[in-house]
Amino acid sequence: MSNRPFRKFDHERDIKSVQRIWVECGWIDDEDHDKEVVSDLFRLGETEVGTIDDEAECSVHWTEGKIRYQNETLDLGAVTAVTTSHIARKLGFAKVLTARSLARQHEVGKSVSALGIFEQGFYDKIGYGTGPYENLVQFDPASLKVSYPFRPPKRLTDADYKQMHGALCNRRKFHGAVDLHPAESVRFELKSTDKPFGLGYYDGPDGRLSHFIWGERKGEYGPYDITIRAYQNREQLMELLTLVKSLADQVSSISTLEFGEFQLQDLLNQPFRTRRSTKGGNYAQLLEAVAFWQIRILDLEACLAKTHLPGPGVRFNLELTDPVYEILKGETGWQGISGDYVIDLGEESSARPGSESGLPRLKASVNAFSRLWFGVRPATNLAITDELYGDAQLLERLDAAVRLPKPHFGWDF
Question: Where in the sequence is the domain holding 208, given as residue range(s)?
Answer without folding.
Answer: 135-289
